[in-house]
Each structure stands twice: as structure tokens, then as C-alpha cells.
User: What shape does this take?
Amino acid sequence: MPNDLETLIDMGFPEKKARKALLKTNNGGVQAAMDWILEHGEEDDDKTEETEASSIEKEGADASAKSLTCDDCGKSFRSPSDAEAHAIRTKHANFSESTEEVRPLTKEEKEAQLARIQERLVSRRKERDEKEEQERKNKEKSRRHQGQDLLKAKQKFEEDEMKRIADQKRREREEDKRARQRVKDLIEQDKKARAAKAKKEDFSASADSNSVTAKPVVVEPPEKKEYAECRLQIRLTNGSALTHTFKATESLAAVRLFVEINRTDGEGPFSLMTTFPKKVFTDEDMEKPLTQLGLIPSAVLIVAKI
Assistant: This one.
């Protein structure tokens, strides 16, 4: 809130005159200062102004000048301070000296002038309040726009994150599906190879029994195929699966360690088992190689919580 000096300056009074009025009235308020200014408006503020006026007179000014007249609007003033206040208030810059004396203001004129000043002060305060209110509204509008922009950015980020997670899960499901299919294909190929081999052996045995001249036949055991690798699909408790290829000579403990490192179904003790045929592997089986446990060339292991 402006103080008395700022209020008087806003009303159009010179700062020197306003300070002097407040000093003369013992800081009695804006009203008392305005009354003093209106009563002593024709007085000079200090000796410096008298010196400047004397200098101007020496340069050729009319010594009989008793007032100043605004050339822009034609209004007369009794003192330079009044003319200065008029110039500040109206932005008029052209003044000339006049020999006509401006009579003192009557009580009614003083009251009318005071009323105009007060009305102008109220108008300026109203304009300032309206300007401050408009600035407040603009700031509030800007704050709301910023909040909406932040909300939109947050929503877009969340949508992009959800899409990324959905794409990742879809890729994981597709990879799991392909791994299951590869295991099924390997099992089917092994079944076909065994069936073809058994059929060939049956045909050879039948031909030998129908021969007229039977010759002693030395039945050699079928050649056992050696596998160097073992492909395992390990199903976790949460429905997901791990697929990995191990060396045929690795122990079942290596498979258990692989599960402990890569499992996604949480921590906790577990056991390994097969379903066809159903078998739960014990601690003694952990040191046996995969070839000895019947998991070659491929098999499906189930992780079961203990």
C-alpha cells in the first residue's frame, strides 16, 4: 500500500512540494498536506528556485511576470510548482510568462479542486486495482495451462510405458511358443527315428525265420546313438518357461543352478521333476549326468515348490 508521499505524487504534486507539505503538517495525513499545498501553492520551495528565477530574469525575462500560462491548454498558474504539477499530470511542455495575476482560490474553488483531485486519485487506484486483478487472472490462467500440459505429458508417458510393457510380454509369449514347438519337433523326430529303426529290425527278423537254409545269425545290439547336447525346456511355477541347451555330460546340478539364476517366479526352495514318466529327482540325482537320467536328447522339466 503506498504511503502519503507516494499518494501525493500520484495525484500530480511535485515531490519537493509534497515533502514540504508533509513536513509543515507534521505528517498529519494526505488531506492536511493537500490543504497546505492549495493554500501555499504560490510560494517557492527553496532559495535555489529564487536563484534560478533571478538568472532567467537577467537573461531577458519579463520582470513584471506574475503568472505562468500553459500554451497547450491556456490554463494559468500562480507559481512554477503549480505549472510543474500540471506538466507532470497532463504531459504539456509549452509554458510562457504572463503579467496577469492569478487570484487566490476561494473556499468553494479549493473544495472543488480537492474534489477533482480525490476523484482522480480514486480513478487511479481503481485502474491500478483492475490492472493487478487482470495480472492475477493472467497468472492463474497461465498456471492452469501449465498444469494441463504437465497432465497431458504424464498421461502420454504412461500410455507409452503400457504399450512398451505389452509389446515385451507379447514377444516373450511368442518366444515361449516357438521354444515349445522346437521341443515338440525334436521329440517327434526322435519318435519317428525309433519307429523306423524298430520296423527295420522286425523286417530283418521275419526274413531270417522264413529262409530255407537257416544260418546262424548273430544278433548285434542296435547301435546306440551318442548325443553331445541336451536341450531342456524348464517350466516355472508362474507358467513361464526357460529353454537352454546343456552338454550331455553336465550334471543335473548345473540345470538347477541355471534355474536359480534365471527364474522369474520368485525365490524359495524347489525340486525338479518330469511328467512322462513321472519322476521327482532327489539330491542324489543332482550329481548324475544328464545322459544317465534319461534326459537326452531333449526333455521337459517341471519346477515344483517344496
